[in-house]
Amino acid sequence: MEPILNGIRVVELAAWTFVPAAGAVLADWGADVIKIEHPVTGDPQRGLINSGVVAGAGGVNHFVEQPNRGKRSIGIDVSSPQGREVTLKLIEKADVFVTNLLPGSRRRLGLDVEDVRARNPKIIYARGHGYGARGEQADRGGFDLAAYWARGGIGDAVAAGDGSYPPIQRPAFGDVMAGFAIAGGIAGALLRRERTGEPAVLDVSLLGTALWNLGPDVVGSKVIGRNIPKFDLSDMPNPVASVYRTQDNRFIAFVLLQADRFWADLCTRLGRPDLATDARFADARVRFANRKDCIAELRDTFGTRPLEYWTKQLADFDGVWDVFQSALETHDDPQVIANGYLPEVTDENGNSFHLAANPVQFDETAPALKSAPGHGQHTEELLLELGLTWDEIADLKTADAIM
Predict the structure, then answer these.
(1) Alpha-carbon gap, residue 121 to 167, rounded angstroms
(2) What residue spans of 17-112 are helical by DSSP H?
(3) CB 36 within 8 A of CB 77
(4) What is the extent of the structural domain holding 252?
(5) Do 151 and 278 lie in a common domain?
(6) In terms of domains, do 86 and 39 share one?
(7) Residues of the chain with pLDDT > 90: what percent?
């Protein structure tokens, strides 16, 4: 299969995960994504494992690999006149420029929309923000724990609500969602340019992505004039749209929204046909009225057997249910394997590892991923493609404009 974005070139001037994740998706789809990094420091995310901030093993920097696979890296000091000119030469030959530089930095470096469009009027200019392109905080930086999880309401939505500390998000949880939104927006902008000739300026923020993800709560809260009630597993309105613990401390989720359709069969599989004939639980209406008693009965029942037993009992059950898995367990999931959701790649050092593919597949084909580039790995290659001579490249290195 020819990659869907074959022939599209993207210049990415961004660090950490949010905007680089967009570049990774575009690279998955076949675009030539050129990652600009500072010649000395590179993307600061490269140092997270070496500094001990996150765990690593075997020489694989997974915090770099996941959002940077399939790209080419060039080391440029964009703050120097020579480095800025090289950057603009790359932009001249690109279809998309994507960045998470703050507005003040873009203006100071001469890489704002008007500067870039002066060299390439048809380029799509994509910006990732913490808090949006307008308003008093448009120039404020943001990471997803702050702008997405905290400010966007998600942390509060999943908190217990009893005054205890809220759960903290997993690493880059909001970044990858917002990055995927940028990639989708770029695809739409490319289509518009193809049809009309008009390029777009594209904006995605972590705050806006949070509101989208939490849409039912956000919209509903204003409609009813208060926050949507938090879930209490001991008092769920529908006892079979909930979570239950097994004897070996595993958890099973049930989503039986048409509860009466599945109730009798579920009770039989649980070895509790008496629950189906109990007047307190006979239909959805009375189960709601007696929900605490129903949940208590189901909890007691699931707690008598280990997960393996229940998965066998429910193997051909028509209702929707599934097991809570850990991140490590997903690698052995037959559906994950069959669909190529965690393809294996091998880096330049011979290390083999798995990456999470983006969730879109074209023509029923899983993407073939490549590892992330080394810091500045393709600097000379890309400069030669621009038509620079070896003497010109040497002069740029002497001036510390490139690595």
Answers:
(1) 46
(2) 18-28, 62-68, 81-92, 103-109
(3) no
(4) 243-323
(5) no
(6) yes
(7) 95
